[in-house]
Design a protein that fits this description.
Shape: globular
Largest sheet: 4 strands, antiparallel
Radius of gyration: 19 Å
Distance between the termini: 15 Å
Number of strands: 4
Order of helices and strands: EEEEHHHHHHHHHHHHH
Amino acid sequence: MSHGVADLLPGRVDESERTYTTTLAISRDRPRTVRISQGRPGSALVEVEGRRLGARATDDLEGSVRRILNLDEDLSEFYALVVDDPALSWAAAGAGRMLRTPTVFEAAIKTICTTNVAWSATVRMVDALVEHLGEAAPTGAHAFPTADAMASVPESFYRETVRAGYRSAYLHALAAGVVAGTFDVEALGAETDLSDDEVAARLLALPGIGPYGAAHLMMLLGRHSRLILDSWTRPKYAQVNGRKASDATVERRFRRYGRYGGLAFWLYLTKDWVPG
DNA sequence: CGTCCAGGTCTAC
DNA sequence: GGTAGACCTGGACGC
């Protein structure tokens, strides 16, 4: 079973039908439940529940789907780097486009919910956030909550209802900081002139985000320099590699991929997720 | 029923 | 700059 933060979108992947269903927020309107599947070769089919959308809402939804499917990322430089590499040449066929959340805020909140807990607990916390704070679509399904919605409830809500434990303070502080403008997290997904170091520094300044979380979020932002080193990737590396290695050794091994070191590491670990 | 720990982070040395 | 200790929770495991 494969997991990634984007798997935690308030929706579900149906592997047999190869579809992804989720409920997405639309500005100035109720959220809508959408079903994403493969359309004609080279295109995605997006089916929207309910009455026909207006032009404005359609634009919103298309923007969200583009961000979820990461359609605008150009990985040609990475493919050129690995095409003659026995360990990663398979990736040049088109791997590495991470499934993402519509907003950086959502990814950051979910990343906090992955720290120091079993995956089942992460799912439980995110489900509670969506159920209790997310706006409902006509289908009854809920979208991921906005920063405003998350800032509007007290920290005790996160402890008592979400059962997020000590993460509660981080979740509330992040939402409140985004609302106040202290943390402009969406800018990190839009800016192109910021260095990876600058982006990393801003992510590390977020409450509850440390080296693991920053590396994880940067991958989703198309910043592939950092290796995600955590309790899942370390043993997985040992398994794929054949023997254990220190973080420093792993970092050294992937240094040759330059600004794509993090992506190379991730794909090296997840090759067995790819069919065939 | 007690202990351990899971896709860590923060604080205090 | 590097490193112990504390930190919520609930599922897994040993007794």
